[in-house]
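Handout, tutorial session.
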Amino acid sequence: MTNEHNETKGSGSTAPEEPKRAAAVGAAKPAGGDVRRSAAQVAAKVGQTATKVAEQAKDEITQAGTATVQAVQQGVADAKAKHEAHEAFHKAMLEETRDTRKIALIARIYGVLVALVGLATIPFMALLIMHLFRALRDGEIGEEVKSLTFILECVDLAMQTVSAIFLVVFGIVLLLNKRRYALNWTYVLIPLTIIEILLSIALRGFDLHLILPTVQLVILVVISINVDPDLRAERQMERALQRMNREQHYEKALAEGMAGRDLSGKGYMTLNFFNIFWMFVAASVFGLVIETIFHLIVFGQWQDRAGMLWGPFSPIYGFGAVLMTVFLNHLYKSSPLLIFCASAVIGGAFEYFTSWFMQTAFGITAWNYSNEWGNIDGRTSVMFMAMWGLLGMVWVKWLLPPLLKLIQMIPWKVRYWLTAVCFVLILIDGVMTLMALDAWFGRMAGLPQTSPVAKFFAHYFDDQFMQNRFQTMTLNPKSASRY
């Protein structure tokens, strides 16, 4: 009984402990799951926090970048506003200058004089034209109608008539203080006056007939400078500022390797007087060297092929290079074929005109291509036009860039006075050359050499000197229009 009771007691005491263990075990299991769930929740929260931090950082970076862009845009807007304000102020000042500033009294007096002279000249020119038509109708002129001299005289008569009419209008415009219109009329009258001077040289040589048109040309240039309100306002308001800006612009462009370049992108180089003048000088020397070497190789003979009294200059190449630079400046990115064709046409036309003018004015033949295939009056030919095309292509594509850099190496502080001095020297050389050629023509034509100028050239630049200096030229007075 005791044993059974003890066993029963023992078994009874154990039975309640088993559910407790099971409950403990069961309770322990859910606790481990909660830990894992809690860890997962913590990890999720950490991930969410990291995502938020990343998004906040991204937003801050974006905001910072946006702020930077906005700051740059604001700076550009401010600069643009300042520029527009400056332009508006400048425009207002120009309008004020244009409207209120009167043309100088001496210019208005000149306007009255040219208007009166023009009014007096027009009837005289009309009578000459009527007489010319009557002579043509009645056959009084005869075979002279076909001569070059008669044609040039008719052109000269027409140009003088047109100029007289334009001078009347120009004088009235000056008198009425119409600055802008006066400026436009100077741009019309200046080339007309230059043409009159060239026609006078071709028909009568260098004589007193050149005084009036030359004086008129100088006066027109002076008036065009002084009546231009833009130039006048710039001189009055921005002269010192422009010097500073030009120097700063030059230094900046020099540092960027863009000195002398056209920063607008419309052409390769800036077409200002400084660049064009030194292009003329360089091309005159370079062209003379090339032509001399070509003649030496082809004909085996050294010949002085200079075209001016002093210096190693051949101006036909200088003017040709200037024409090509001006007309082909915007084609520097074009194909070599297009540049070649354009250069051939420009060079051939200029060569033809130069030959015609030299023969018409002075009876001089510097070249004759009559034996060449495809020649045009012996003044140019297909082969030499092709050579002009090749020179133009080489000039625009390969020579112009390094030459422009070389020109820009002239120091800023000396470039203006140096250019001015050299221009005056070249101009004197050119004028003396033309006068020496005219005196040479007069001696060969048997004209009396009694004037002091004629005696001066006969003494210092006699026939032997001219023949030795201009070895490529032959002078025949009978081929000139004024013989």
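The second record follows below. Compare its token runs with those of the first.
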Amino acid sequence: MLALGRAIERGYDTVRFVYVSPPDLKQSSEALLAIGKLAAQRTDIKIELSVALSAESAIQQMAQPDDILIGSRAPQTLGIIEYAASQGNCCCYLHT
């Protein structure tokens, strides 16, 4: 994953994924499993996962520039992800 490589190059030892999607979406559990597998595979950087229930919480949990906000393209999360992206944070949508 490109973002992890960039974080390592910048000298970070930890990258945090901040997850912001409605818990009832099927993609939610798949995404969380994928991040868990990635964390188990990578030994060169620590990967943490946290869940945010609001835009404020999501932004507060992103401690460094290479932390990644991820979520499903759902009406409940579009505003949060777009706001974080407008603030210069790394964001991505899950395929739905």
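Points raised in discussion: The first strand starts at residue 14 and ends at 19.
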